[in-house]
Design goal:
The protein is about 40% helix and about 15% strand. The longest helix has 20 residues. The strands form five sheets. A six-stranded mixed β-sheet has the order 1-2-6-3-5-4, with helices on both faces. The chain is α+β, with helices and mostly antiparallel strands and about 950 residues long.
Length: about 950
Amino acid sequence: MKYSILLIAAAIGMWSTAAPVSALTAMPPPSGDLRTAPLEFQTRTLANGLQVISLPDRNTADVTVQVWYRVGSKDDPQGRSGFAHLFEHMMFKATRNRPEDTWETLTESVGGVNNAGVFPDATWYFSVVPANQLERLLFAEAERMGSLVVDEAALTSETSVVQEEYRQRVLAEPYGRLFSLYLPRELYQVHPYRRPAIGALEDLNASTVEDVRRFHATYYRPDNAVLVVAGDFDLAQLNEWIDQYFGSLERPAEPIPHIAVEEPNPAGPREATYYAPNVPAPAVVVGWRTVPYDHPDRAALKVLNGVLSTGQSSRLFQSLIYDRRLASRAASNADFNMQAGVFTAHAIMAEGHDVEEGQNAILAQVARLRNEPVSADELQEAKTELVAALLRGRETIDRKAHDLGQALIMTGHASSADTDAMRIQAVTAEDIRRVAKRYLTDETRVILRYRDEAERPDDVPAEPTPFPVQAPVGLSDLSTAYDIVELAPAAERVATPEAGPARAVVTPEVFERTLANGLRVYVAPTRGLPLVSARLSFAAGSAHDPAERSGLASVTASLLTQGAAGRSASQIASEIEQLGAVVGATAGADFTSIHANSPSDTFGRTFALLSHLVRHPRLTPEEVDRQKAQAIAGVGMEYRQPMMVAYAAIARAVYGDAPYGSPARGTPSGLNAIALDDVAAFRAKRWRPEEATLVFSGDIDPETAFALAQSAFGDWSAPSSAEGGLKRAGEPADRRVIVIDMPGVDQAGVYLGARSILRKDASYYPFLIANSVLGGGFSGRLNRIIRVQRGLAYYALSGFLPREDEGIAMAFTQTRNEAVPEVIQVMLAEIGRLSTEPVATEEMETRRAALVGAFARGLETVDGRGSAVAAIANHGLPIGELEGHVSSIRAVSAEDIRKAASEHLDPAKFSIVVVGDSSQFLEALRRDYPNVELIPATDLNLDGAALL
């Protein structure tokens, strides 16, 4: 494939405001003919009604097995809202021949992943594993379809976990109630789509074992399911296994309850206002009912949504955020269920602006869509973005399988997954105007306002009154023809099939070259989808922020696309979207990463744009102020979330006033202090070729990539001297126990943290496995104890962030307030075990496999391969470490882990931060930690180690 090479004029200085003479503006626009290749799948139906989709793919060493059941939250029985979601959890319990840890043993323990999701119309279970594990996974899926163990212990455990999930996702999130509870309540009046998928706590508590068994017998049957298998397999062998394991499952005689509720047309516009605690800024949502999923107008509404809110050139962003600064966030969403669809647009207001301004601005943009056709450029941008997103989604087998399964469930035809791109490309400007006039009318719209509890008038109840929804299905409609299944004695269980021969993990060949100015260039070419990624990294992270300018690296990165010589921010956003590209920048602790991803046929222009943005910025004080305002609003929202506050505070506890202790996103005072000159000086000093790496990955050959790098950056020399050494971690500080009091929050965020190692440390790989053992996934020790065994949280994990200086090791969870002392005790005990007890051989093998599997999956995508190369190159490590990554993991012994833990993971050195309602746990916590520091959230100041 040929690539256009941009010749950038070298005479323009880095901060010149004059437009460079280049081929960039002369290159023709993309054709607009971007397409996705058809998925080459096969379908068949077993005698028992099970529908099967198979998609062989020899370009991967993995397989995904997905099972879709035609039962979702709309099917929840009367008085059992949230039942489909609860049952999604129950399906990971024991079966007749497999104990409760089946899914972790068969997936995580061999390097795979598993999860599930419940939607209004369906429930989706998926696993991705190395291809040699396929037969074992098919056996297990058939087991839980036909012989799930449902008992009191399993129901009690998962009810507790779902309740914690409810508290975390709905009650603890500032806008959780708005989008999970109140919005569906207002958009629908009688349809069961009105009920939240997660249900109500009282309904969850009312569930019985018999209810669950009857629900399984009613819906979890072969004639109500779709099995999708994609990846590296032999089709004949796959069909033989499917017949063997699924063919014997019986098709029940009882009919499946069918829901077909007709939602009445709105009688007129409606408005409602809700109040909730811990709302950082008021919000407004405007919504309309539209069309079901399998409707000809779905494509036009998706493109309309793209015009309205996809990307920074979209109308909502430009109007509400960029131009008028009414909102800190604004977006729209086109959502399509099987029996009805909705379109919503929302705004979270900026400081000094109220929801009436937001709703009027949204309605004005919708009126424009009704009254005048969108421009040709807007139309093409939206369509190209949507199709490019579909193309990126085809990088992984699990996404391909998902698209096929969803298409069959929602339309009755798996082949409709292949027509989405074609339908999007066929949308015209008149189609958009037509659907806007038909569905997004003033007569049918709903306006929902959302304000903080402190603004609630005295005559408005603190909690909305329960709203009646008569579910079409009652408990009496559920099947009574079920068997009570128990886990068979070990000697009587049918053995799980043995795994086949394993395939080695194949790492991409990496080519490298250093330009005369010191820029190191790496190329990891792969053939497959026509996508290319570029990742340019500078040694310019938050650790380089001046103490009084916290957030400078982050703001500088965010300004990348906000102005370049010859282009405004809006023009840049429009060009990115025309190219079907993703271009942006992020700043971490040590590095700033600038990335671009686009289809192959537009990558020449995309990379030209990226280099143009890096070398020829045209920034104004207004743009800097705009980005600062958005950053301050974002930080303000984070300060209302216990986990986000705890994460920021643990860094201060571990690093004190050292650079690593400062929040990477900045603080309100630090962000307020940033000026254009600060950004210019930071870029001039830190964005330097001799300290940078550039990684290309995907559908590009090395010589083309090197030529692009040389043309774009070869003549670039940094205009100032480099900064000297920096002590980023500072001196070790004493352990601290900090409680940040947020009265009334429903859950507490808990973080434990201590210094760990540098990325270049010899203990890096033992640390990787130690972290995986402790809390690196669902089957990590912390999650097994805190979630699975005790039901105290929705998750409990650990994290290990190696850096250029001393990194940080963390353990964290979000739990109900009264459980704080207990979860801290568990975390510290498990951290201590790592240095006092050797990890058992079996656990070592499973954690090694989990790490190897995650590494292999990461290499499947263009961006993933680029990130893997950059992660090594940025730290100055030999690129050969990529190829040796798997062998290094496998070489770690239990003694290596114990030694690394004993040197670096002393539980007595872990600082503790808890952010929650201290009235519910402070007294108990003080018995263990008399010197606990209590800081009211209203007094919190993250600018320094004192936190006050």
